[in-house]
What does this fold into?
Amino acid sequence: MKVESLACNNCGAPLEVAETTKYATCTHCGSRLSITRSDSAAYTEVLAQIGQHTEQMSDDLTAIRLHNELERLDRDWQTQMEQEEARLTNLSKTVSEAKKLDKGTTRPILGLMVGGILLLSTLSSSGSSCAWIIAVGIIIWASWALKSSRDHALRHSKLKQHNQEQQQLYLGAEHEYNSKRADLVRRLDQA
It folds into this structure.
């Protein structure tokens, strides 16, 4: 069996070990050593230092994972915020258009209905069938327009309710994001 001459990596004392030995203990300082060999050299490393380096690398890896998770959480939240902003912009346009349609629609329609009824009462004495058809047409159209206006107002009301529900969902998601982020930051500070 061939013997190698090495030095303790901790205290520098000479060591004589077999060529196949992987671990040794320094007889001078008592350090437990790992023997590392390559094609051109052999050297020792103190096992405690290897353990410390391994533990430090593990801690660093944990911190990197937490940092990556925090960045992913922030990116996902940013995407969700952009989607919510786009939804709110579209909703704002829809509500604005609905308000434009609602403004001034009901009064003219009611005016036409009243005018049609007055025309009918006036024509009832004259007996003109063409005027009667026009008056009935005006009343029917005005009734339809009034119903459409009310349907539109109902859709507008439902849209507002849906928006309020979406805002509540968004606030819940924001609370969840803030909680997760605070937990990750706390864990990252501890790492």
About this structure: Strands lie at 3-7, 14-18, 23-25, 32-37, 42-46.
